[in-house]
């Protein structure tokens, strides 16, 4: 039985697919299977994947209709998994050679934990962006993990490893609910549902922002941030401090999304009204003040700040 099932959804990734697959082939830890779900690609991705399948490199499945964010494809891949640990990887990003081995070592050292996270970095073109999270290596309590998420997104799709039973018990990624940020919603849901998680600050994956069509498409941020739904779902079950940090994390995501909306001229009234004010951090109040500025003046202020 394999230790890991690496699940990769693919929708029109012919330009990056072989490079991303090479990152998996070159892993030092070899006890894993690759499950690829072709999400109705039309650019030649399927032909590449069929060649790799014939070589015995991966197991290939097909879906007739692509789903927003690849969430349905990932869930389908999880259903086909034969191992107890699920790892997700996007077909336009990169992994370091010890990505899986670090998960394997952490799992051996902490067999009672069901969710493991390796650090990631963002890249814009050839530029590696600065890290925003500085967390300790090792076990984080639920409260510590929520407090960390209130400061920054320390979990990325490529850097997460979750026990299959936990993934299934939580219902997998949300399908047909969100066009974007359904994964952020799910990671926060995982933290809220578990007493402990494990974090490794070693960077083992690179998120290539210039390949992310989901993030760049501003039509995906029409609604309020998906994380807002967690307020209702975890109204009970968390202590006061955990709720406070959950609300602070939700505030951070709502505000960052509202800034994107404001820049493209969309209303942010619903976003502002959904904030939990007593959980606001000092810098978030400054962001909120700028969001209240009328649109024409906001644009001028932003241009002036960006111009130096």
UniProtKB/TrEMBL annotation:
GO biological process, one term: single-species biofilm formation
Glycosyltransferase 2-like domain mapped to chain residues: 5-131
Keywords from the UniProt entry: Transferase
Keyword Transferase: yes
Transferase among keywords: yes
InterPro entries: Glyco_trans_2-like (IPR001173), Glycosyltransf_2 (IPR050834), Nucleotide-diphossugar_trans (IPR029044)
Endpoints of the signal sequence: none
Any GO MF annotation of the entry: transferase activity
Pfam families: Glycos_transf_2
UniProt name for this protein: Glycosyltransferase family 2 protein
């Amino acid at each position: 039985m394999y230790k890991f099932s690496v699940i990769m959804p693919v929708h029109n990734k012919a330009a990056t697919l072989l490079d991303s697959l090479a990152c998996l082939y070159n892993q030092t830890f070899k006890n894993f299977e690759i499950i690829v779900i072709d999400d109705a690609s039309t650019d030649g991705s399927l032909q590449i994947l069929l060649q790799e399948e014939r070589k015995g490199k991966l197991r290939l499945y097909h879906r007739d209709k692509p789903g927003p964010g690849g969430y349905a494809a990932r869930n389908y891949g999880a259903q086909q998994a034969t191992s107890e640990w699920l790892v997700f990887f996007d077909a336009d990003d990169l992994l370091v050679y010890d990505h899986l081995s670090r998960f394997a070592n952490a799992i051996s050292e902490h067999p009672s934990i069901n969710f493991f996270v390796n650090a990631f970095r963002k890249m814009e073109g050839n530029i590696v962006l600065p890290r925003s999270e500085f967390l300790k290596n090792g076990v984080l309590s639920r409260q510590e993990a929520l407090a960390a998420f209130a400061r920054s997104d320390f979990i990325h799709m490529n850097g997460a490893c979750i026990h299959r039973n936990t993934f299934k018990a939580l219902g997998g990624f949300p399908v047909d609910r969100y066009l974007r940020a359904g994964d952020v919603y799910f990671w926060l849901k995982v933290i809220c549902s578990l007493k402990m998680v494990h974090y490794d600050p070693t960077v083992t994956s690179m998120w290539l922002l210039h390949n992310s069509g989901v993030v760049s498409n501003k039509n995906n941020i029409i609604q309020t941030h998906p994380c807002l739904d967690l307020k209702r779902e975890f109204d009970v079950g968390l202590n006061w401090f955990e709720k406070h940090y959950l609300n602070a994390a939700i505030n951070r995501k709502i505000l960052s999304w509202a800034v994107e909306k404001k820049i493209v001229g969309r209303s942010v009234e619903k976003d502002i009204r959904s904030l939990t004010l007593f959980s606001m951090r000092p810098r978030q109040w400054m962001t909120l003040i700028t969001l209240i500025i009328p649109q024409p003046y906001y644009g001028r202020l932003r241009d002036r700040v960006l111009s130096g």
